[in-house]
Amino acid sequence: MTEAELQETVRDIAKRTGWLYYHTYRSKRSPAGFPDLVLVRPPRVVFAELKSDTGKLTREQRTWIAKLLSCGEAYVWRPNDLDLIAEVLSTRYRDERPVIETYLADLYDEIGYIGFSERDPVRGEDIAPLSSTYAPPRFDGR
């Protein structure tokens, strides 16, 4: 499955599960490394970088994902993650997903974000430490 096919599949899942979907089609003038997708369904915002099975993250992509993870939800999704994608997009809150701890451990390894504290590989500045139990505050719509 190509990245374009994966993007189309994620878009279909997002639409079926009630998410607003955003993708920058011409990113030449955008900051390097910003994730491919922004998905919104209150109370959540999800950022997702899409890669083929063999696709590699750039330094800038690793930086964006690391910083977004420290603020909320960010993912690197590949074709073999379709079950995880469906689970992520079908739940209301981040902490309802039991597979997230395993996924995050693998993602931290992939982006070089070991020990929940790292230096930004592009700017050389400290990235704020993460807590593996962090979850964004819930918003009940009132």
Q: Radius of gyration in whole Å, from Cα?
A: 15 Å
What is the name of the CATH architecture?
3-Layer(aba) Sandwich
CATH topology heading: Trna Endonuclease, Chain: A, domain 1
How far is the first residue's CA from the last residue's CA?
Answer: 42 Å
The share of residues in extended strands comes to 15-25%
Helix share, percent: 25-40%
Assembly level: single chain
**What is the spatial order of strands in the main beta sheet?**
1-2-3-4
Q: Please, how many domains? A: 1
Shape descriptor: globular
Number of strands: 6
Give the averaged pLDDT, no decimals.
77
- What is the N-to-C succession of helices and strands? HEEEHEHHEE
**Count of alpha and pi helical runs:** 4
Main sheet overview: 4 strands, mixed
CATH class wording: Alpha Beta
Give unreliable regions as ranges: 114-118, 129-142
Structural class by helix and strand composition: alpha+beta
Folded structure, characterized:
The structure is a single chain. This protein has 142 residues and is of the alpha+beta class. Helices cover 34% and strands 18% of the residues. It has helices at 3-16, 59-71, 82-90, 100-111; strands at 20-23, 37-41, 44-50, 73-77, 118-119, 126-127. α2 links the parallel β3 (44-50) and β4.
